[in-house]
Design goal:
The protein is an alpha+beta fold.
Amino acid sequence: MDLTGKLLVAMPGMGDPRFEHSVVLLCAYSDKGAMGLILNKPSPDIRMSDVLDQLEITPVEDAAAMVVHFGGPVETGRGFVLHSQDYQSHLHTLLVTGGFAMTATMDILEEIARGQGPERALMMLGYAGWGPGQLESEIARNGWLTADASRALVFDTPARAKWTAALESLGVDPVLLSADAGRA
């Protein structure tokens, strides 16, 4: 089973407040572990203009207003841009199943600042990472549901509505979810 390009939807009672009601797009998945970006945790204190100012990049107005998200608890000072596949960095872009891509190099920030980056993009600080077998164990313990990712859910759905929308894409009513796992 390859979960690359799939969504992880946090179940109630996950136990880790950093992931409460999170929706994560898995950008890489293998027997060596997994890496993903939380899609629905906008940072209340950091804007793209702050990031670009720190990097001494002058942005166009639209780029400066871009929201920065908490992408996960690993390397929170490092930036990642989840974007549409219409843009590929000449340095390094990871193509993700489902029409998504991720770039973590400075050139994408410079392109976004000039208004010439990808058609769709989300800026993240940090990422979520799992070691070998860790994610599978969390899924087995009822920590996560998996769902297909869509561009509409990832890029068009407001952050506060993504968790509910991801559950509804599975036919799950969030009100009926239980934090308890069971075996028949």
